[in-house]
Input
Amino acid sequence: MRRTTLPFDWIDPPENKVAEDGLCIVCKGARRLCGKDRCPLMIKFYSQQKTAPLIDFKDLDGSCPPAVFVGRYGYPKVDIGPLLPPFHGDTSIMDKPERWVGKSIDEITDMRFGLVRGKVRIDAKDFAKYGRIVDQVQELALTEKPVEMEASFSHRPRGRLILDDEVQPFGPSARMESMRATTGRFERYLERSFYDTDMKAKDAIINAYENGTLISEIQKAFSTATMGVAGNRRFVPTRWSITAVDDTIGKHLLETTKFNNTIDDYRIYHWEELDNRWCVLMMPCTWRFELIEAWYPNTTWNPTGKGVEIISDHEFFDGRTDYASIGGCYYASRMAVNELLIDEGRTAGVVIMREAHPGYVMPVGVWNVRENVRAALRTEPHRFESLDGAMSYVASVMDIPRETWINVSGILSDYTRQRRIEDYLFD
Output
C-alpha cells in the first residue's frame, strides 16, 4: 500500500474552513461548515422522514426486494435477518445495485433508508439449531423476485447513521420476534448449488456468475450459508461476502486473461458519477493492476484534512499475497476490469485513478466502485500511442497533476523506470 498527502493549495480551497470538534452542533446542517454541498446527516433525516410514519409500529408488512443482511460484530455470534420496506409493489431495485448507476445520492439513500433491518442472533458456524428463522432467511437470499412479508419486532425500529464504504446503507433496525413470507421462485443456479452439498463454494460462485446470475444475488446466497460442501457451510457477514465474491470471480477471470495477448494501444476510459471522477488507464503490457483513490478534504474519509489524501494498492503478474489495505473496492474494480479483458480476449496493465470530491457526501457501498468501473469500461476509450499521451489526457480531466499520479503509483513508477523485453527488441 502507498499513501501520501497532497497539499491543497494548488486548487481552490473549500468555501468554508473545516471546524474543530463540535462542528455539527454549531452547523446544524444549515451553514455548510464542513464544506460539503449537502449535509449527510440531513440527507438521512429527510429520507427517514418519508418512511418514519410507516414504520412507527412493532409490526411491519411489505414487499421484500428480497434482501437480507448478516452482521459481523461478535462473530461467530452474529445478527441475521431480512431488510423489509413498509410498502408493497415491485421493490426489486432496492437491493440491485447493478441498476443504480445514474441515480443520485438522494435517490439511493431514499431507497435504502426505507429498508428496515430485522435482527435475530445466531451462531454462524452452528446455525441449524435455530430452525425455521434460518430457513426463512436462506429462502429470501435465494429468491428471484419480491415476496410479500410480515415481521414482528420486540420494539419499534430505530437506528443511527452508519457510514461504510463496503456495504450499501439501510434504515433502522429492531430485534425480530417472528417473520412470515410468501413462497417465491428460487434463482435456478443458486438453487442448484443450495441442494448440491458436494459442490465447493468457489465452484458455486463461478457457476452462477458464468450463467448470468447477478453478483449482488450471488453475494446474498454466499452470505447465508447456501453454498459449499455439507458440514463446511457458514453464515458469512455481508461485508465479508461482498469482497469474497468479487475476489473469487476476479481470480477466476485472471486465470485466463493474464495469459492472453496484450492490447495494442494505450487507453483511457473516463467516467464521472456522484462527484467521483474515474480514469481507467490500460497499457499494452503483461498483467498488472492498481487502484489509486484520492480523497479530497470534506469527503467522508478525509473530513478534516488540509490536503488530498491519496491511497493505493497494486499487484504485478504474480498477484497479491496479502489483503489490499484499500479494502473491497480493490477486488471489485479488479473484477470489473477483467470482465472487459475476457470479452476482448486480451490482457493489459491497468491503473484506475479515482478522485472523490466533496459532492460525494456519504459512502454508499463498494458497489459504487464495481458498477461505475463497469460503466466506464462500456464507453468508447480514448486511444493513444504512448503513455505520455494517455497521461496528458488524464491531466486534462482530473484535478491532480499527472506527475502526482505517476509518483504515487507503484505500477506507473515501475513502468516508467524499468526497461521491458520489448524495449530491447526495438533498440
The chain is about 35% helix and 20% strand. Residues 238-257 form the longest helix (20 residues).
